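We both want to read discrete structure tokens more fluently, so let's practise on a single case. Would you supply a protein for us yourself, any chain you care to pick? Would you write everything just below, so we can both look at the same thing?
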Amino acid sequence: MLSLIIRNLIFTVLQPGLVTGLIPYLILQDKISTTFVRPWQFYKYLGAIGFVAGLIIMLWCIASFAIDGLGTLSPADPTKKLVITRLYKFSRNPMYVGVMLMLIGQAIFYQSTFLLVYLIGIFLAFNLFVIFKEEPRLRKDFGEDYNNYCRKVRRWI
């Protein structure tokens, strides 16, 4: 179990950490230092709420992968069991939804057009990855169980 926790921490830093942390930081470097000095306006609260909601969703999904699936969020170290419980009852890809909420929250919070363009690119990349890589692998690994799940639960929301 300790190995699984460590692997999940590593993959969390490497994958969503890169997408929602390092790259947005590099895009927003000039805005970050001045943002917290000024009083917050409504849009900052809205962005912060979106980011925190996305973070909670993402962490909940990572825990579901470890607890229910006995694996990690990474395609390099996938789950051993098909995860269809918790948030996965409502969306086949709630972790991606959480990451997108985090990026939307950041784009709103920082009022960044560049970050908005980045998040659109990330969503397109997620969509292509899910359709052409992840779903075929899941069909191969879990067969009819995954096909039944796809008939019952939407890809996104």
